[in-house]
Amino acid sequence: MIKDIIYNIDIKTPCYIIDEDRLIKNLEILNGVQKRTGVKILLAQKAFSCYHLYKLIGQYLSGTACSGLYEAKLGKEYMGKENHIFSAAYREDEIDEIISLCDHIIYNSFSQLDKYRSRVLNSRKKIGLRINPEFSTQKGHEIYDPCSPKSRLGITEKNFRHNDLNGVSGIHFHTLCEQNSDDLKATLDVVEERFVKSLKNLEWINFGGGHHITRKDYDISTLERCIRRMQEKYNLKVYLEPGEAIALNAGYLVTKVLDITENDIPIAILDTSAACHMPDVLEMPYRPPLYGSGMPNEKKYTYRLGSQTCLAGDVIGEYSFDEPLNLGDTLVFEDMAIYTMVKNNTFNGMPLPEIMLYDKSGNLKTLKSFDYEDFKRRL
Ligand SMILES: *Cc1c(COP(=O)(O)O)cnc(C)c1O
């Protein structure tokens, strides 16, 4: 068990540890969906850009999904399989390189399509349009809902030019976030009714990301029925581009207790930071799982866990433990592979956590370490 190893050795903290075995288990689930249905699943790099593992990921998945030129380069260089890109708008000075690196170029508007259509067609790459089905299936966090009012993501039915699709071979929608396949099905019903039914000459459809396929309670058979429906009824090639699902629960953030103070409740100061190393904790917000802990007051000793930084709100949450915490204790936050390394920063001059791999043979190795220069170079 990874956790026993973490406690037994003297690793430098803070550090992320990627669990190769867990990653492979996720990839096997995803590859199962591909094999049974013929869908193509791409790694959405924005969730997990750990290119050291792209070769492994590429043994199971069909390629990479990118949000911009840099991700397009990374995907091409380290996975080298199908490379698809969506951006809300492309820059004039980047589009040619993007076209050379990517197989599918997905536009967010008809004006972008008009601007770059001929260049893409001359290169024989595929053109897609992102649509907005205006069908919201999530509540509570508008920041993660591309169907929220006045959203800039995707073309709405009203703005869709059904007669101006020269060169367009596919459509893309991305409206889910950490959701199950019942929400996909409901969304697909709307997408079918408003777009797919009336579009001739479509070759492919991309269901975007947000499918929590590797979560224990995910209903894979409904997902597969959605895929088959598009394949059989409309003869479409189907793509999925999940990010989270690929490295869900496949990484840890290891930290140590630097100090213990008190203000109504015991407070432990850690050598990690929510703001710097797990920003989604504050942005989503959510409570990251912490190995061996309970909810506040569930176990005997409850602590508020916070960071070294000067941001008052840089607090991870309140957690309880069977034993009191001690200075130097190691704590292990779970599910820390996704949306962490790709989002971290050096606010307050906080060090970036080392990135390590716990490989499937049980060896722990360093993929990347950081120092003062990494902080300085960006300023
Ligand atoms: C964020 C995003 C994804 C991946 O989403 P997950 O929630 O990590 O699965 C895929 N496609 C697009 C266009 C995205 O913006």
Characterise this structure.
The protein has 379 residues and is an alpha/beta fold. The chain folds into two domains: 2-18 and 251-336 and 344-377, Lyase, Ornithine Decarboxylase, Chain A, domain 1 (Beta Barrel), CATH 2.40.37; 38-246, Alanine racemase (TIM Barrel), CATH 3.20.20. The protein has twelve helices and 16 strands. It has helices at 2-8, 20-37, 54-58, 69-78, 95-101, 110-122, 181-194, 220-234, 244-247, 274-277, 280-283, 372-377, and strands spanning 15-19, 40-44, 63-66, 82-86, 104-107, 126-130, 168-172, 204-206, 237-240, 251-263, 265-270, 301-307, 315-321, 330-334, 354-358, 364-368. The strands form two sheets. Strands 1, 10, 11, 12, 13, 14, 15 and 16 form an eight-stranded mixed beta sheet that branches. The protein is elongated. The chain starts with a helix and ends with a helix. The structure holds pyridoxal-5'-phosphate (PLP). Pyridoxal-5'-phosphate binds at residues 44, 46-47, 65, 86, 174, 177, 208-210, 241-245.
Secondary-structure map:
Layout: H1 2-8, E1 15-19, H2 20-37, E2 40-44, H3 54-58, E3 63-66, H4 69-78, E4 82-86, H5 95-101, E5 104-107, H6 110-122, E6 126-130, E7 168-172, H7 181-194, E8 204-206, H8 220-234, E9 237-240, H9 244-247, E10 251-263, E11 265-270, H10 274-277, H11 280-283, E12 301-307, E13 315-321, E14 330-334, E15 354-358, E16 364-368, H12 372-377
Parallel strand pairs: 1-15, 2-3, 2-9, 3-4, 4-5, 5-6, 6-7, 7-8, 8-9, 11-12
Antiparallel strand pairs: 1-10, 10-11, 10-14, 12-13, 15-16
Helix pairs in contact: 4-5, 7-8
Bound molecules: pyridoxal-5'-phosphate (PLP).
Pyridoxal-5'-phosphate binds next to helix 9.
